[in-house]
Amino acid sequence: MAERRGQVVCLSVVALGLGCQPDQPAPSGQRLIVAVTIPPQAEFVERVGGDGVEPLIMVPAGAEPHTYEATPRQLVRLSEAQAYAQVGTGIAFEQVWLERIRAANPRLLIIDCGAEVPLVDGDPHAWLSLRHARTMAAAVRDGLCRLDPAREAVYRRNWEQYAAELAALDSTLAARLGASGVRAFLVYHPSWGYFARDYGLRQLSVEQEGREPTAQRLGQLVDELRRERLRTLFVAPQFEPRSARAIAAEIGATVVTADPLPRRYLAEMGRFGTALAESGR
User: In this structure, are strands 53-57 and 109-112 parallel, antiparallel, or unpaired?
Assistant: First the structure.
């Protein structure tokens, strides 16, 4: 309760200090500060913005965006930001905090990274599609061009390079997964639905609607694992329950970490795709 009171006081102080100002670029010679909700977006900002832009991550690595609460220090730092790049797909943190952030810093340019991303069944994890990541990075590009039109050519060139790398990895994973014979994969928390869709795979999940599996569900999973010849359980470090390894042992699977909120997005997507392709051997 004391922490929440501190957050409210902090928000009020920041709001009084800023007043109602339009979005504006950083003072000459300073880097633009773009706040983001989750770590993968920080790579989008860095790759598109280059040396002239600094990301500020609100939900840090290892934290869980369904339950994380912004700290007073983060809210004060937001007073220095010129933009906030929201995921825009229904992340719980944004549903709780975005309006408070707007009130605290009215001059923030809000960039909606999910505005042009079609959601499937309300699944918010759209960034786990390399194809959607290109679109989300393009939203960052357009926001930076609005804030800093003098560097528009730089932002567009940077985005084109990053988009090409995303497309190249997408093609590589499509070929690798297609040749692997893998048709399905098992996760504990169902974060990877868009990835599965992109490569024609089925995502099987231990957890269903936020709940651990019943005995009946475990029996079904064992049958599916045998049918699909799956031997790997992919577990997110943010969500890993103590029971994950026990469940993996019960169903005869090996636990492998797969981070759906990676700070190094391209590297982790490549690592996950490779591990998935190799899991079918």
Answer: unpaired
